Write a sequence for this structure.
């Protein structure tokens, strides 16, 4: 696709991530404009449209089918991703789909099959950490070989709080899926065996959701990965990653914040949520998507196959939540 400026439509524009994508397309991304939005919450959709000069569509299907729309961003709730992605692909529209690609392995496969049937690479998935400057630096150091082969990876994913309807399974499909993908990307290989352990639950866990969780994964070459997944850390949002290699370690830096000394105390601010931590990554993933569609780069971003592989690993982890055993990832 080659056009001076791509007209982008955003599905789910009323939610936090949908608004972020809408804002980035309208104010940051070169070569694109926010042309239309849709959300079940009409009031929120109208607010976004008014703010950024876009049109409000009456339905997702209308937006996808519109000849005025060149490409689509899917930022609606997780369970709708696969169906909407297939509709975009069948309409011949390039699509940027937020993670996860699907909430079931069966639905993820439908997306992959639809793209293969189209004969084109039409989907980029929102694994934005691949575009974070610090993760990129980590990968360059690892790929240089200066520290030898990787042996272990220690990861932490802490969110201040989660909605009351958040489930035990969503700790995997909505949170740990970022670590699933970033570890695949950093190591350049797949993960083949997984397990989940439940420590004592926090008093802030809602309903039957088991929080926190310890996710364990092993790569094809034998790298052992542990991920602490906390949906109710209470104190703030924190993402950490350390790769242990033969000759040293590579650690993701703590987000830079001024250290303030005041009366009888010293400290620095902790981000409240992802909107402050991954600003550049969210901008750059969309810029890369548009650049690829415009032919400015021939390197595609993470695609449907990456989304499918992450769903396979998620599927095995959800099984491991129930069995308490190590589970094989489907080959």
């Amino acid at each position: 696709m080659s056009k001076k400026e791509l007209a982008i439509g955003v599905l789910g524009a009323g939610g936090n991530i949908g608004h972020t994508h809408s804002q980035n397309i309208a104010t940051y991304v070169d070569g694109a404009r926010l042309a239309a939005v849709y959300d079940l919450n009409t009031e929120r959709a109208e607010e976004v449209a008014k703010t950024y000069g876009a049109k409000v569509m009456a339905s997702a299907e209308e937006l996808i089918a519109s000849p005025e729309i060149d490409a689509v961003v899917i930022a609606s709730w997780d369970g709708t991703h696969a169906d909407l992605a297939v509709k975009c692909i069948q309409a011949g529209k390039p699509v940027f789909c937020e993670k996860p690609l699907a909430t079931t392995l069966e639905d993820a496969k439908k997306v992959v099959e639809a793209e293969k049937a189209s004969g084109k690479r039409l989907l980029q998935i929102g694994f934005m950490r691949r575009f974070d400057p610090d993760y990129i630096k980590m990968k360059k150091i690892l790929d240089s070989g200066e520290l030898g082969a990787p042996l272990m990876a220690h990861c932490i994913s802490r969110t201040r709080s989660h909605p009351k309807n958040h489930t035990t399974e969503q700790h995997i499909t909505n949170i740990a899926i970022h670590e699933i993908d970033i570890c695949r990307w950093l190591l350049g290989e797949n993960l083949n065996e997984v397990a989940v352990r439940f420590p004592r639950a926090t008093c802030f866990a809602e309903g039957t959701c088991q929080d926190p969780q310890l996710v364990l994964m092993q790569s094809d070459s034998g790298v052992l990965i542990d991920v602490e997944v906390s949906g109710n850390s209470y104190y703030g949002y924190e993402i950490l990653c350390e790769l242990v290699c033969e000759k040293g370690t590579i650690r993701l830096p703590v987000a830079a914040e001024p250290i303030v000394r005041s009366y009888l105390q010293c400290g620095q601010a902790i981000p409240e949520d992802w909107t402050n931590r991954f600003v550049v990554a969210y901008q750059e993933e969309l810029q890369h998507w548009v650049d690829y569609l415009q032919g400015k780069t021939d390197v595609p971003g993470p695609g449907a196959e990456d989304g499918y592989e992450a769903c396979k690993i998620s599927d095995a982890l959800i099984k491991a939540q129930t069995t308490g055993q190590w589970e094989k990832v489907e080959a």
Remarks:
- The radius of gyration is 20 Å.
- The chain has two domains: 6-129+280-302, 133-274+311-328.
- The longest strand covers residues 150-158.
